[in-house]
Description:
The complex is a heterodimer. Chain A is an alpha+beta fold. Chain A folds into two domains: 13-127, no CATH class; 136-217, no CATH class. Chain A is built from ten helices and two strands. Chain B is an alpha/beta fold. Chain B contains 15 helices and 13 strands. Chain B has helices spanning 8-11, 13-25, 41-56, 70-83, 92-106, 149-159, 199-208, 230-240, 261-271, 288-297, 312-319, 332-335, 348-360, 362-379, 382-397, and strands at residues 30-35, 60-65, 115-119, 135-139, 164-167, 180-182, 217-221, 247-252, 278-282, 300-303, 324-326, 343-344, 402-404. Chain B has a six-stranded parallel beta sheet, covered by helices on one side. Chain B has a six-stranded parallel beta sheet with strand order 9-8-7-10-11-12, with helices on both faces. In chain B, strand 10, helix 11 (312-319) and strand 11 form a beta-alpha-beta unit. The longest helix of chain B is centred in the C-terminal third of the chain and has 18 residues, at 362-379. Chain B is globular, with a radius of gyration of 22 Å. Chain B starts with 7 loop residues before the first helix and ends with a strand. The chains are: A alpha+beta, B alpha/beta. The A-B interface holds A 12, 14, 16-19, 21, 38, 40, 52-54, 56-57, 69, 120, 124, 126-127, 129-136, 151-153, 155-156 and B 12-15, 17-18, 21-22, 145, 167, 170-171, 173, 175, 179-183, 329, 337-338, 340, 371, 374, 378, 387-388, 391-392, 394-395, 399-405. Strand 1 of chain A pairs antiparallel with strand 6 (180-182) of chain B.
Amino acid sequence: MPKSDRSFYFRTELALVFMTGRKAHDLRELYEGIRAVPEASIYHHTHHSLQWPGDLSEPTNDFADWVRQVLKNEPVAEKLAAVDVYRYHTLKDLREALAAVLEPVLESEPKGAAREAGSGEEFVFLTSSLYNIPTPYTAKDLREFSDCLRKVSVQSLYYHIFEALLRPPLGTNDFSDWLSGCLDERELAERISRLDPYSHSMEALRARILEEVERRLGATVPDAGS
Amino acid sequence: MPVLSDYRAVAGPQTLDEVRFLGDRLKGRRLLHVNSTAVGGTVAETLHFLMPLFRELGLEARWEVIKGGEDFHTVVRKMRQALQGGYERFELRDYDLYLRVQEENLGVLPADHDLVMVHDPEPAGLVRGRRPGSRWVWRSHLDLSQPDPVVWNFMRGIVGSYEMTVTGSPSFAQDLERPQAVIHPSIDPLNEKNRLMAPEEISAVLERLQIPNDKPLITQICRLDTHSDPVGAIRSFRLAGKAVDARLLIVGAPADDEPGGEDVYDRIREEIRHDPLIHLLRLPHTRHAEINAIQRASAVILQRAHREGFGLTVTEALWKGRPVIASPVGGIPLQISHRKTGLLAHSDEGTAYWIKQLFQDPGMAVQLGENGREHVRRCFLATRQLRDYLLLFISLESPGDQVSL
């Protein structure tokens, strides 16, 4: 974005997935993998399922899904799924949080942790190269912002809300940063940053942000996702 | 042939925006795809719809087919089987023949290309003709999870010369030194097998094929071979019992590249001879419109299998909004997240249980159908594969964990 340009440029993120060559057969190997793989792999396994647009179930990540479905260890799966990616502003901290779930299990329940995946059911550590690209949507004011927000993809929304947390200024979503810095809409920015994206499906999150923006615009709130 | 804008309604305008942006970055690149057959099979089907789209985006895209005699095709057929875990006998002269055909084809292939994607083992050895400055990718559509070690060792030496390899599913991959991308196969939502059909057209197809429409249909469409499990589908249907007032329809044809296909067909026919609620329809997989109509007319789709490739038949059924109950093999778990986008069942008993559940809870069937269709829209449509290929080519020129374009 040019320095003099105060418009909001909606971008989106595309991922190209790669194998890391690492697999896990049990909780110990999962833990060792979480400790060893590149940060991009931690990002991949904790973030790609968040891009599902609809409300399918509770939020989760690939580690939790595998522990639940393959190792049949519901208590550990529940704790892994409860690691809230929105709370961690660096992948290093997120990695630590995931490892911290597994460490006590490996120490206190070596038997439970010994359950192995069958052939073909191993956890395959993947990673992704992320390409962020422009979209045709640009907003100069709150009305245009609302119009664009209805049209952009779920991936674009995800990019500006979740991925933004890991970019400077750390811990802030792009919308709040722009609303506050360029439109001086501090209260609205604050309200949006207080929304817990981890508790919403992406479409529900879009609807909540639109609701806040429309309220500020003083307009009637249209149907969510319309 | 469809053009990009034809996909707007099904794939969404944002996907087309992304594809056009990426295409712009690659405008003018000379792209060559090479495979072993111009018609039949998933690779040729996919290239038929991708090539015009690459050209529309401004790439100079060409598609070449490796040429070889009957002996060559016998050897590479054995090679495919062996790489996918089958047992085949190989002589030294088989490998010699393979390499000789690669050399012969090198002389006739266009040399002036920037990007080359070689599909599957048949033309893999062409990489020996790689020119400086051109970037070569080997795209495997096979399940290489348990290959014959000798044949894989031979192929590994060849594949190591590529800049990058691509697999269709993490579970199909072998460890390789080179970067290995994962790009799922896809279906074309506009082709004969997947296009929208009017209810009258569906009814007319059912009538022509003499499929009764007095009860809901539970359908399994598969190759009749030892990897699929139509008998498992029959057992599951019978286990579901009287709680399910439906008919079971098994659709397929004996696999012509596997001995014993006719035996499988005869066994099923014998199995259902006295059962008026189970029907066996011999229909080749090339009868696209009929398969489309049958999938759309079905209340539930089954995919019982001992082994499966990516399972694009499942993708097609999900795209039609049908609830699918499938075995968790091959690429199926990537498509079906249990109780979210479909149902996974390991056994006949499990399959029967979920058939009953779907008939008792129509709301669940509708929800799974909707979720399954949305999952395919996001992950398994032709436009997504096109976008991934473009991204892959860009990644060869602009590598990195995070790249801003």
